[in-house]
């Protein structure tokens, strides 16, 4: 349940200093001796929706050391686990992993409370819950309404990555993304040089499980195009 989730009334109200203490000064000025006193000027650019145990964040953190990335996860225990994992990595490798963090939230709600229009350059939906039953389809993380929200927080030229081992869900995501006026599919051959794709396939815990079970992985990536403005 998400009855007790905190969310900022607008992105400007969000205090990111707990997630990225090397990049944001505490909004209330009450940091400890380790807090930075000035923001680095960076903003979160990558969001991993339903990030689970955080394998993608850990992998991409060192591939894109100058980008801030955030996992969003609804399960309390999972959020705590990933948080501890990242803190341990920061301790073990000083200067690394300061750009990766996780937030407990329901990503189907309040996304625009956290991110400004066009703030993000990459959005990841890796092995999302399939919700097989027809009456549960509205609980899927890709729907026409949510896609408009994703288009709002994603900048023109930004990319949505989706992958699933469930063909039916893959076809559902493709159907809705194809139908949306602000997204165009990126042909597989154009993804060859994309540094994120290999990790999208293999870095997450779910992706590794599918690999062990020799399951299929259906990838579909879309570019957010420039709109009407
Ligand atoms: N992406 C991860 C991976 O590839 O290993 C996790 C995949 S797991 C099948 C789906 C995850 O999405 C779960 O951890 C679940 O708790 C999370 N989730 C489901 N609905 C969510 C929501 N509305 N907001 C945030 N997280 C959600």
UniProtKB/TrEMBL annotation:
CDD domains: AdoMet_MTases. Its main location: nucleus. S-adenosyl-L-methionine binds at residues 50, 73-74, 106-107, 126, 204-206. SUPFAM superfamilies: S-adenosyl-L-methionine-dependent methyltransferases. The active site is at 129. Its EC number is 2.1.1.33. One of its GO terms (molecular function) is tRNA (guanine(46)-N7)-methyltransferase activity. InterPro entries: SAM-dependent_MTases_sf (IPR029063), Trm8_euk (IPR025763), tRNA_(Gua-N-7)_MeTrfase_Trmb (IPR003358). It catalyses: guanosine(46) in tRNA + S-adenosyl-L-methionine = N(7)-methylguanosine(46) in tRNA + S-adenosyl-L-homocysteine. It comes from the Eukaryota. Pfam families: Methyltransf_4. HAMAP family: tRNA_methyltr_TrmB_euk. Forms a complex with TRM82. This is tRNA (guanine-N(7)-)-methyltransferase. It comes from Lunasporangiospora selenospora.
């Amino acid at each position: 349940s998400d009855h007790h989730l905190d969310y900022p009334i607008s992105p400007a109200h969000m205090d990111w200093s707990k997630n990225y203490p090397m990049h944001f000064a505490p909004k209330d000025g009450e940091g400890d001796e380790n807090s930075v006193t000035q923001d680095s000027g960076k903003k979160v650019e990558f969001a991993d929706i339903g990030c689970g145990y955080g394998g993608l964040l850990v992998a991409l953190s060192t591939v894109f050391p100058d980008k801030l990335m955030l996992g969003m996860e609804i399960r309390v225990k999972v959020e705590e686990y990933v948080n501890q994992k990242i803190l341990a990595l920061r301790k073990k490798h000083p200067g690394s992993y300061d750009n990766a963090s996780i937030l407990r939230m329901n990503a189907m709600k309040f996304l625009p409370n956290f991110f400004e229009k066009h703030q993000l350059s990459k959005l990841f939906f890796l092995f999302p819950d399939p919700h097989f039953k027809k009456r549960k389809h509205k609980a899927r993380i890709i729907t026409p309404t949510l896609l408009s929200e994703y288009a709002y927080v994603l900048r023109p030229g930004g990319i949505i990555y989706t992958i699933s081992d469930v063909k039916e869900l893959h076809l559902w995501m493709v159907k809705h993304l194809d139908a949306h006026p602000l997204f165009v599919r990126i042909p597989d051959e154009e993804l060859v040089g994309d540094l994120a794709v290999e990790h999208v396939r293999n870095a997450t815990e779910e992706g590794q499980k599918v690999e062990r079970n020799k399951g299929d992985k259906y990838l579909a990536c879309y570019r957010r195009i420039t709109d009407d403005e």
